Amino acid sequence: MDFITLKEKIINAKANANIAVVQPESPEVFEAIKSASMENLCHFSLIGDQKTILMQMEKVGLKGCEIINAADATCAAYSAIDLIHRKQAHILMKGNVPTDVLLKAVLDHEKGLRTTQLLSHLVIVETHERAFLGVTDGGINIQPTLADKVSIIHNAVKFFHRLGVEKPKVALLSATEKPNPKIPSAAQANQLIDLVKAANINDCLVYGPVAFDLAISRRARQIKKVDNKIYSNADIVLVPEIVCGNSLAKSLIYCAKFHSGGVVLGAECPIILLSRADSAQEKLNSIILGVMQCIRC
Amino acid sequence: MDFITLKEKIINAKANANIAVVQPESPEVFEAIKSASMENLCHFSLIGDQKTILMQMEKVGLKGCEIINAADATCAAYSAIDLIHRKQAHILMKGNVPTDVLLKAVLDHEKGLRTTQLLSHLVIVETHERAFLGVTDGGINIQPTLADKVSIIHNAVKFFHRLGVEKPKVALLSATEKPNPKIPSAAQANQLIDLVKAANINDCLVYGPVAFDLAISRRARQIKKVDNKIYSNADIVLVPEIVCGNSLAKSLIYCAKFHSGGVVLGAECPIILLSRADSAQEKLNSIILGVMQCIRC
Predict the structure, then answer these.
(1) Which chain A residue is nearest to residue B209, measuring alpha carbons?
(2) Exposed site from A214, A263, A273, B264, fewest CB < 10 Å?
(3) Can you tell me the distance from the alpha carbon of A189 to that of A207, in angstroms, rounded to the nearest whole number?
């Protein structure tokens, strides 16, 4: 699977998904919206200062979006969430609202989009072999506990099921394959595997501890003489903490030049958090990943 | 600077460095020794079971190495260290001796190769722009304290000085550029910068916290509107803990396909720990990095 195939799937499925964009203001956000609109990937409801939105739409030549006026960032966030509750929108997307304001509204116990799962961030990269590799969580959870990791795995596995991967392989990343008691991610891998089983997260293969080379490289598997092909074929890499996930994903994007997109999981709908540093293509890929989740919902 | 230029420098310098190899036994180790010998990079003293060594030398067609018989791994390690003390060898290299046995001998308070610095591992990758980027420590120190990190930075900076980089730029890696109190590497960056200054580690520029994209990518710097060019131009990336460093280095090697080599620093001489999963070129690069350290000693 790759981003181009995924885009074609979405276009063919005529999903009619609607994305609620919270406080779109900057040209980059409007460029992303325009390119997704032109590809007929989805519709958009733009929620924020009406004047600014109209001006930016005209600037980039964007037409046919619903506009909902909102006084400030918090109002815009709650309006967007309301659209999701009323099933008039299916995906939430951050425009120029500060991330903490958006997530605070999402996590609101009364009016938000909370589920029993943790919110977690998943980066998807397309490797040179045109396979999707997920890295989670390098964006939201700083130092997740084992229970948090079960939820992060749950979110990513469910995401891959919707991508059409029936039994995603989840590598529990560490610096070694030995259960080294001094390295928490290596020492606790077996316990985490048991917790995932106990949580009834089915249709996935969780294994580890494993270093990154053995998680993704056939050459490393052959040299290290590991027969089990589950190694070297990870769909999802679960990282121990945020700096590891953040750096790993960024090295795959900036140095390996893998195409990429990202999405926040664990809420009632996918949440797209575009980053300023994302390229136009990365922004479009994130929208593709969000819409894809809705087709199979 | 790149590995080919570095190799030529060494050949031209006629360094006459001698590498003491502890317990060489496997064909891969002898292939690495042979290729370094053929390039006239250095000499080798091979320390271990004489019969095995002679047999393997014949197999790969290797000639002209000193052979020192040693009864077992520990004896071989101490014999090699003795050669270093007597200045008959200048670099220590792991053959098939277990890493812990070798490092235990190196760290022996009486007979070892201890200095006042911590032992630390440095991976050097050659980016597509033919620049060297160091990642430390993804190999030895699991969860270094701030004091440990000062020593790790000291080792890497000294290494880059010998590579000819007068004022290496050291990026303190985190997931953000903000001093987020919840992320230790982000919260403690300023304190670490002060400790580096207090330790009189001069001729380097330590900065952070910084996420990987802003540490190495000009595009990220432009988009994030950071004027200071120290960003996006790191020579050395200091990682918070071992899994982050290990995964980052491996993604640069396996996914970005950067040429690489690695070396252990902080002892009285450079230590080369080849890994089974290293390619022939990576092994040669590690030897190049080790020998380079001796030219300017």
Answers:
(1) A243
(2) A273
(3) 8
